[in-house]
Amino acid sequence: MTGLWGKCRRIFGRNRLSQRDAAQLVDALYRKLLLRAPDPAGLSGYTALLREGRGTVADVLEALLTSPEFYANRAELVQRYYPHQRDGFFADISQFGEVSTLLRAMIDTSCKNRILVDVGVMGRSGSNSYDLLRWFGWQGLLVEANSGLIDSIKAQFGPLNYRIVNSAVSDHAGTATLHIGSSDGVSSLNEGHSRMFGATRGSITVQLETLPAILEREQIPLHFDLLSIDIEGEDMKVLSHLIASSPYRPNWIIVEAGDVGDYRAGSLPLIAAFDELYEAVGQTQANLIFRRRGLAAALPDAAPA
Predict the structure, then answer these.
(1) Taking every annotated instance into account, which residue ranges of this chain make up the domain DUF4214 (predicted)?
(2) What is the pLDDT of residues 152-178, one digit of tens each?
(3) 216 phi and psi, to 5 degrees?
(4) Is the model's pTM score more than 0.70?
């Protein structure tokens, strides 16, 4: 990033920047720190701030470095700029990485087969599967509806132990239209859902399959360790169908649910049997994490929950 910081040093002391310098600097900061081109609002807002002297380069840096997006991209930034130094998943401070080794062994002990299924994988950034494949040696089945992303997924996941299925997932088989969102992460079978995040970029016809059919064809065990579902508005439908129509019971489930507040049974459009089989154990900004009831007791010498 020498060129970026050189530009910053040359203009840092100016009270105001020209339109051209301000726009170039904002564009460079977005591309280097957020790994994307600036959105129109961000570009115009920060450019005006610098051009009119209402803020400094330091102010723009502070805003980007403390943004949720920069925090979410931190692993991708390290991978991009320090690929050879990132030789472990954990940033632990133990003497020689003992804590990392210990935690891996503990996770292995609590898993049945180290198999995951990631429905709506999209790519490495924001992935719920990549770290488990890369640092813990899991096996993966990656499912992606958008055929235009398959080659980039293969490039990003490299030689890890996974298979890719290019198919959309729903509660029935057939064909459907996938609406390509303003970003790949918001593409959806539901056009209205995709348009909530901005204008769509087109559409493609996709093959629909049910999740049980995919799991059976790919010979996934009935109690595989992790199911991650992120398919933009279709998540609850697919999860309910899996529970209602098949014997597959993943040990752990991560599912995108949006901002639902504190989870309680019946608060999502899931069949009643789901809450009888699973308990919520964690929640993030967009996802809920569930554990199969009785899983802890089924592990060797498990302590009471």
Answers:
(1) 20-72
(2) 999 999 999 999 999 999 999 999 999
(3) -65, -45
(4) yes
